[in-house]
């Protein structure tokens, strides 16, 4: 059917934020945030401390409520139906600056817990998946250890594996290397680059601009709760359009 085959439709966006506004009391932390992320796209989100980056990505998996606008993740609109929060969180994995591993559980148990508890995955299957993903972040040989026995970089890789065990469609990273000693940053970035290469849809809040250049399809710069500028890395770094962006890049590069 040539007529049908000829019609090209853009894929549904993986994430669509439209005019999202959020206040803490009278303080407006997000102003008219609109952002569309297509399947497989990698976004780097940067901006000064306090500009609302964490709040923005936390709105995507309903860790924060917002007062205006809408967020749609993998076809599910947050807020409009009972169960929408659970439906969205099922698709979204998140990695934080602080690794947030459970200290009293082994690496393997940390990775098996959520799939067993909230997905009802049988133990044998959860362990198989966990071991496979721990191998993928090159830490399979540490599976029986406790988090405190690992370096910061290793713990963060476990946190990434743990998020992947839920088989998310989207991964959100909130300054995943900011709490690490410098010598451990690369191993975590390399893990993220691997994920990106495998086609994961990602939003990464990071000031690692080398990573942004290498991986990002788009770099988004926020200030004072607004998206000020977004561009492909090449033009973002070479030819920033706004004074705020230039000032920011001057400070971090
Ligand atoms: P970023 O991640 O860019 O550093 P955040 O999203 O953490 O910024 O914070 C944006 C602004 O919102 C900051 O001014 C911060 O102080 C404020 N803020 C964050 N969380 C809260 C909260 N729970 N209550 C009140 N204000 C908050
Ligand atoms: Mg933050």
Automatic annotation (TrEMBL):
Which InterPro entries does the record cross-reference, listed alphabetically?
AAA+_ATPase (IPR003593), ABC_ATPase_HisP-typ (IPR030679), ABC_transporter-like_ATP-bd (IPR003439), ABC_transporter-like_CS (IPR017871), MetN_ABC_transporter-like (IPR050086), P-loop_NTPase (IPR027417)
ABC transporter domain: residues covered: 15-249
- Domain of life, source organism: Bacteria
Q: Which UniProt keywords apply?
A: ATP-binding, Nucleotide-binding, Transport
Q: What is this protein called?
A: ABC transporter ATP-binding protein
User: Which Pfam families does the UniProt record give?
Assistant: ABC_tran
Explain the purpose of this protein. Involved in beta-(1-->2)glucan export. Transmembrane domains (TMD) form a pore in the inner membrane and the ATP-binding domain (NBD) is responsible for energy generation.
CDD domains named among the record's database cross-references: ABC_HisP_GlnQ
What family name appears in the similarity comment?
Belongs to the ABC transporter superfamily.
The terms describing its cellular component in GO are: plasma membrane
Tell me, what is one Gene Ontology molecular-function annotation carried by this entry?
ABC-type amino acid transporter activity
